User: Fold these one by one.
Assistant:
Number 1:
Amino acid sequence: MKKKLLYGIVAIIVLAGIIMFAIQGFNIGNKYGSYTKLHFYVEDGTVNKDEISQIVSESFNGKEAIIQNVEYFGEMVLITLPSVADEEVDTFLGKINEKYSLDYTKDDLEIINMPSLTLKEVVSPYIFPVCLTVLLALIYMVVRYRNLGFWKVLLKTILAIVVIQALIFSIYLIFNLPLDLSIIPVALTGLGIAIIYEAYTNNKNWEQKKKEEEEE
């Protein structure tokens, strides 16, 4: 009864994730989504990060930005934020010119617009090592617990891996969590849980079967 309830909850979460994927797709996030880099330089002056942060917030409608000092004397700042419009850059320039008594134009800023990555591009570096890990785990399972049935062990292990990963991605979709670097350890942890769980249940079933054979 408890297993049926658990399976039902998992099925509902995965179904909700599929629906959210159809509606909005994955939230790639700032790390993998399109973003803009601005290099801002003030000759013979020190840039105050708090002041720049305030100007950036006002100019780019409160978009989350990363502000870094590039040079030792604080004359250059690198600003990284989600993709911006030309009008927002114009507003930023106006405020910077007013604050630091400058006459900068867009040509005086180094503006780099980076396109967003696809999900395939995000996960491609991890496909080979993960597939190798899964293959080795499957080989171990079917060899170690072959007395329980080759196909039974193989299909159960694959199903556990698929369900756990589907559950993880469904949670990301339901809560619209960004697919940043956190997805890698989370997905790998899920993979480990699935393999360990199947190893535990297979070992338990193997011991039970061995005990029954000895009693006979």
Number 2:
Amino acid sequence: MVFEFRLPDIGEGVAEGEVVKWFVKEGEAIAEDAPLVSVLTDKANVEIPSPRAGTIRKLHAKEGEKVKVGGLLVTIDTKEGEASTPSKEPAPPASPPAAPAAAPSAPPSSRPAGARVLASPHVRRLASEKGIDLGLVTGTGPQGRITEADLIAAAKNPPSAEPTSPPGSVAETVAAPAGEGTATTAAAPPVPTHEGTSAPPGAEAPPTTEVPSSRPVDPELERVPIRGLRRVIAEHMSEATHRAAHFTYVEEVDATELVRTRDRMAAHLEPKGVKLSYLPLILKAIVVGLREHPRMNATMDDEANELVLHHRFHIGIATATPDGLLVPVVRDVDRKSVAELAREIQLLSERARAGKLSRAELTGSSFTVTSLGALGGVLATPILNYPEVAILGVHRIVRRPIYREDGTIAPAHLMNLSVSLDHRVLDGIEGAQFLAVVKRHLEDPHLLFAYLA
């Protein structure tokens, strides 16, 4: 039996994914649930397991190629029952039917034709793992939403709109594009081609060929394809710089008390396995600044020409990984202690570097912080994490002499903070006032624990 596996709907709003890595080759055997392919969507690498055991007949997408949801990924020769064994003798001619058989009715469904399938990402992932077409499942949840119980029932009694084709007939299409809500038929459907048109039934999509470059080969040069996470970052940065009008404001902070407070807290937390950096304390100061200047805790809806203010404090933390920059999100910063923030930042950073972050952990931020720690330099102008309208850059702490208010010279720990704004909706004075609040609470960290919400 030929099993055509298509890119499932692996998250709300995801329209396509880029094939990052195949874990199999054509002609190789694969077990059910074994790693099949890694797909990149919205900066999150999703490892998709094989829904069937069998032999890889054909890979329909190359590494670096984008595939739309529902697009054909791989064809697998399975070994399920007699259908997988070709007949050695010609089949006897079929007797003409006495009368045309009535078409079987479609499975009952409360979903109107063409309506969008309602299901959570968890249910969609389970459906993908079990090879169930959500378009054929009747949802019993609110507004017809498909629940996990509906999925379990569908797995026990697989829904079908047409009888299974007999052995020796045209290969049955086993998996339909997720969310289309169309039934599989005995005849093979048109095969999508790379030009977006359809080939006749039974025809295979033409292989993807790379157009040879007309540039002369220079042995002293190396050309590196921009793909995967690096391509997503490039597209995101281009959108941010083309849409937003960047403005950056810089402030110097006397971090002497911040260093002393962090060192005292670290002495209590690190024996418990919690690595405390300055970032949790900085996040706490940022929340105070965002409370006093709520327009900074916002995203821009360019389609509606509206500034969307957020009432919760979900802050993205720019994190360097071997593949590029990721921004995992720390949610509800105002509701967590410094120790809780330190532990969460540590875990998110480890998952980011290991490429294990989920899409949910990479979305939903309303403000972002970027820091290179000890390599933070003197000054940087961060690019907005669009559609957010503000981002804070944290630079390294250095020990230098400064003049005190009484005219004396004393050593101090100093650092710079830089805030970039979308100048279309935020004036420079708002950024300066916000940064003044952050500066005040970092120079006197005790205020962070005396703040009344």
Number 3:
Amino acid sequence: MKPRKLVNEKFKLKDMPTRSDKGVDHPSEQIDELQLELLRAQLALFKENKRAIVLIEGTDTAGKGGIIRRITRHLDPRSAHVWPIGAPERWEQSRHYLFRFWQRLPEPGELTIFDRSWYGRVLVERVEGHANATEWKRAYREINEFERQLTEDGVILIKLFLHLSKEEQYARFMERIREPTKRWKIKVSDLESRRFWNGYQRAYDDMLNRTATDYAPWFVLSADDKDYARVHALKLIGKQLKKHVDLNRVNLLDPQVIAAIIDQFGEDVLRDDLVQASHGQSD
């Protein structure tokens, strides 16, 4: 089952399976290829001075961190930023909740990834009582206006929601408890949030229905199978970025660098495609 794209439609998470009826073949090999494509897309963003945001939401243990690690593994860290979003600092609480996100928007040529996001106002703050009803109901309009401003200003905005079952979340909590290298991921707040499971499902439905717009659609991925979610998340992000940049203008080695390598070491050290690039077939 491919990721579900949502734009201005009625949708219920319970109607979408959390596990695809098909697995993925050779996930490691696919991820390696997709990571190279993401690197090329990132270099194209930099070359064309464009800005992109990848926003990932989902319940605790849904796999946000695992996907982000695979997105960023081979990216140029100078123009890629990851923002893990938790509770606002005390000084931020005296400002509008969107203030801290304005501070983290990408510069020209940058790719920014949000591990959770401004949707906290209509998710954790709503469900666990940190915002009153007037505040979180108003936030849908504020978020839509915020995202419209971003996209009209040229920001490429890609929003992913990872759809996980309660049973799989339990299994992943148990894995973290039993595996010493993963215990650092467990927080009291994560465990307590299971008490609010039904409230979160209602909040997710409202979020997806009220903020899936033509300029900022949501993509919902089944997340019970980690390999499936990772492969399809990388595919989706690469596909969306390639709509806005020209990969044909990108070389992983700059033509001037290739020419210098040939001058220093000879053409024998390069593959044929790089030698051709040095003769001007790619900008």
Number 4:
Amino acid sequence: MASTTPAAGLPTRQLGTTDMEITRVGFGAWAIGGSDWSFGWGPQDDTDSVRAIRHAVGRGINWIDTAAVYGLGHSEEVVAEALLDIPASERPYVFTKCGLVWDESDRAAPPRRVGDPASLRREVEDSLRRLRVERIDLYQMHWPANDGTPLEEYWQALVKLRKEGKVRAVGLSNHSAEQLAVAEAISHVDTLQPPFSAIARDVASDELPWCHAHGTGVIVYSPMQSGLLTGKFTAERAAALPEDDWRSRSPNYTGDGLRRNLALADALRPVADRHGVSVASVAVAWTLAWPGVTGAIVGARSPEQVDGWLAAASLELTQADLKEIADAITATGAGSGPVMPG
């Protein structure tokens, strides 16, 4: 159903052992879910969001990452609206996630992490309906369940959905290497979706090497650390974040954490200038330089934001670039985890 050859000729990589070849960057649909939920990004214009998705697809991006919980269903609905008039042969792959259940009577409450197979089956039907598709290309467990359901049980439920054809591939998001090994013993883990950026680097220690060794595709999220590594974020902007933007409550956006992160973003400018690209593109390309990483999820709320990071889809950083960035990470003290791809 989805096109495997991007119209703009962007390079692709095989997603793990699946039959999907994906562009090195994909459209992230977290922010377009809007506000009125506990991890919203503030109010969004759905018209701009639709334009952003269509622009990304038109520029050659061939996959979209969303989740049922983004906007409590709204992100999936916006994605469906954006793809409605695109011919089936040109549509991008659509990836979504399950396992976070919300209470419609208290939308501001944090969603519950639920692994009960009956709940997962209801969730996949709801996502199919909201996305207006007959099959989801990649379905991932958003977080480890904390409702008492063992990992083995919810992973078997996802594998069953794959066997039934309701989903094309299945994966885990925000799971550890140890948890991946438990799931792999039952059935192959097609993908892992972890947080990864030049600030949040911890998964480079264990999870990325595990996936590289086991043929599990990796699509990382927040490669620009939710705006901090775009080169456009400032201390003034951080201070002005509204209360309904989750970033206003994060230590990465205040005090010493913010100072170190912005210093690292500034240190990426010389690399960006040498390649004639944006700081945002360098931040994304840095994640793609690590062995095991298949693609990076990059958010946008307008066509202009898409154009701001699209160069990352083709950018190859040199060893000298990576050494310069590693030195900057060490000098600024930003984040944690390994600093140089090995």
